[in-house]
């Protein structure tokens, strides 16, 4: 196991470097960089001014044009464009900028946002409580619901209980989470019927004035609807995965042998079947955590006005805020790779028969 762990740790840096390089090339090739966005905003603000129109008319009459390659830069001082390029680091070649970025990341310096007066690390820390709150409680509820439900469906396969719960699971799988969120708002957040839950934020305006129990109650009061929306849309896949995994194990020969020896169904289920059936569920846990914590809550955050990591990443892409885009990509990819390694190690701890190192030869 130690040799396998060392090999996997050695593979993490080149994998991370390859992912960063690929995304760096793609994003740099995309049109509409940060300088173009600033120039477009300035052009929009000055588009109706007479000074702007006079300058453009003068340039056209004299046949002059701006030497910069940015659309919307006509009539702007070339020195101003050069200062913007120097400020954002675009005066350096692509390879030099990439190597500088990698060097910063090796020191866990994620840089500073182009459009926010904060470092990327501070932005992530500021947004982390929202995403952790959504991801932690929704993941916990999903597993608490899906695993017992999937086991019972496997034990009562084909029964009336299995049929009607499958209908609920299919509905949960077919309808996106943001539609459930909108439905919950209409029903319970003052949309058209009841006004039981708040619609914005993670806490109330008077949160600091509340008692300890009051703060806890206020926190879960605000989380109730977004977590419910994420849970409803997320438990279907895990429920079916759990059921199918347990069904596959229940019909294996070792289960029939154990029952023939007089072992009780409870001992067979939790002493033998459970450990083997949970392997495939453990394998999907890292991907589920990364998805729910960092990417799966974007629409939920927008609908419930929660300022989390999903919204931060989306706004960074729209604004071409490259330090935020690459900083979050680096951090979340690193976390994902480490979680995948932890998942494989957990595999081997649960079932010593599994040996990943022997499969690599």
Provide an overview of this structure.
The protein is mainly alpha-helical. 74% of the residues lie in helices and 0% in strands. It contains 16 helices and no strands. The protein has helices spanning 2-29, 34-46, 50-62, 78-88, 94-106, 120-155, 160-174, 177-188, 212-250, 253-260, 265-283, 285-295, 298-303, 309-319, 322-350, 356-359. Helix 6 (120-155) crosses helix 12 and helix 9 packs across helix 11.
Rg for CA atoms: 27 Å
Number of discrete helical segments: 16
Unreliable segments of 5+ consecutive residues: 48-67
Order of helices and strands: HHHHHHHHHHHHHHHH
Distance between the termini: 14 Å
Overall 3D shape: globular
Instruction: Please state roughly what percent of the residues sit in beta strands, choosing from under 5%, 5-15%, 15-25%, 25-35%, 35-45% or over 45%.
Output: under 5%
Instruction: Report the strand count.
Output: 0
Helix vs. strand class: mainly alpha
Largest sheet: none
Question: Secondary structure elements and their pairing?
Answer:
Elements: H1 2-29, H2 34-46, H3 50-62, H4 78-88, H5 94-106, H6 120-155, H7 160-174, H8 177-188, H9 212-250, H10 253-260, H11 265-283, H12 285-295, H13 298-303, H14 309-319, H15 322-350, H16 356-359
Helix pairs in contact: 1-15, 6-9, 6-12, 6-15, 7-9, 8-9, 9-11, 11-15, 12-15, 14-15
